[in-house]
What does this fold into?
Amino acid sequence: MIRMKKIIEQYVTDEKHYLDRRAFIKKSAGLGIGLASFSAFPSLAEGVAGGGLLDQVIPTKYGKELTPHTFKQITNYNNFYEFGTGKRDPAKNAHSLKPKPWHIQVSGECAKPGNYDLEDFIAPYQLQERIYRFRCVEAWSMVIPWVGVPLAEVIKTFEPTSKAKYVVFKTLVDKQQMPGQKRPILNWPYIEGLSIAEAMNPLSFLAVGLYGKTLPNQNGAPLRLVVPWKYGFKNIKSIVSIEFHEQMPINTWQDQASKEYGFYANVNPNVDHPRWSQARERVIGRGSFFSPEKRKTEMFNGYGDEVAHLYAGLDLTKNF
It folds into this structure.
């Protein structure tokens, strides 16, 4: 327990240094300085705490107006039931995950199925930094600076057929690496899905890092999904399988409690969870314990301009 705390603290990033580095990269790109000179490129599956700096990461327009939460907050408060049901459990227990070597099985309605090594899976694409809002269905929120690649680019590589209407993701099943799977809390493996239109939206993202570092185990190393207009449970972690389906899949939480969780899982403040309101959200780390900062929840988590067209004509009070 104590040793794990030391590991986490060792890699806590000071926001000032992070923002200074980000500004330097932008300036260097403008001057034509090669980004390869900034730091050594590490393995994408390096380390429990995600300590290795990722090189050749291009800053983007996404979230420039947002202030990210700290590395410590992001890596010490999350849900990852494969390592326990408490918010602090993943940070304490995820050291058992071995994110290298890692393979992703691609199958289903596509022209290029196969079993791909993570390095080869990511290599064709330019790493990007995107700062996104994150909203949990439990009514708490963060702002997270992800590093990864657009999901649409990855999907195009595998050439889905005309029958591919949905993309289905699965998490690793390994009770030794993921001790939480020894308990039947959920029906393992964890499964999530998007419509092909959602997956091809420019906002959809596959993350391999955060804060410019390789993705920590507790945050879904070495590969996770990020769809910022949806509730957090949709953002499946430690992906080992991507399948193209003709039929809409049943996701894990839909299977667990179909009256509480639907397939779409769009952030919608007008549709309450059966057990609590979704109108407002608690901003992690802001305010005090007795008076936490809360903000009004935005439709589609504030990304309506980019994604509302995906649901034209769909009743989002019934298709939740």
About this structure: Residues 2-309 form a domain with the Sulfite Oxidase; Chain A, domain 2 fold (CATH 3.90.420.10). The chain is about 20% helix and 25% strand. The CA atoms of residues 23 and 59 lie 9 Å apart. The chain has one domain: 2-309.
